[in-house]
Amino acid sequence: MQNQRVYKMAFSSVYPHYIAKAEKKNRTKAEVDQIICWLTGYTENQLKEIIEGKIDFESFFSSAPQFNENASKITGVICGYRVEEIEDPLMQKIRYLDKLIDELAKGKTMEKILRNK
């Protein structure tokens, strides 16, 4: 039941928290957007439309043009769970995004965050 609440949350209601977390650590909105686009395959214009709309997390990820094939390289703990061990595919995608934003806020380089190394 808890997962269903998260799935139905509007992406646009969480997005400002991603930005705030990054900016608190001297990172930028542009970097957050780059991470989101890298993970989902959305363009910047598509992302802007999503943020202006009321699309929930479930629709946000199910409509993603091209979920990044390197997402499986995202590992570690987020909210007490190892992201690579989360069985629910949608929750895993949500936690992948959370983990990437955490890495940004912790000062990792974009190259490492985007699994280019």
Automatic annotation (TrEMBL):
InterPro entries: SP1917_dom_sf (IPR023204), UCP033199 (IPR014580). Gene3D superfamilies: uncharacterized protein sp1917 domain. This is Uncharacterized protein. It comes from Flavobacterium indicum (strain DSM 17447 / CIP 109464 / GPTSA100-9). It holds the Pfam family DUF2200.
